[in-house]
Amino acid sequence: MMFALFFLGEYVSILLMSCLINILFLGGWLFFFDFNVIINSFIFALKTVLIIYLLIYIRATLPRYRYDQLMSLGWLYFLPLSLAWLFISCTFICLFS
Fold first, then answer.
1. 3-state class of 2 per DSSP?
2. Cβ-count burial of 67 within 10 angstroms (0-12 exposed, 13-18 middle, 19+ buried)?
3. So where are the chain's domains?
């Protein structure tokens, strides 16, 4: 039962994350122009299902990293990359605004 509840919580978080990605980045229920409520709900559900499929597909195909590999990846590559991107973005904003 604990195993089932663990996976239920994991898939509920995938569903919630897909809905938030849909609302924040993909326009939510809007397509190209406004339809009625039923078609808007179908468009929202279709976008959410596509994001869920993409997340599960990525999770199933990519290799799983150990905790120490994730820490070294984050500290050695992602942190300097994000700081460099922050510096470049701030430079462009200061120069061209």
1. helix
2. exposed
3. 1-62, 67-97
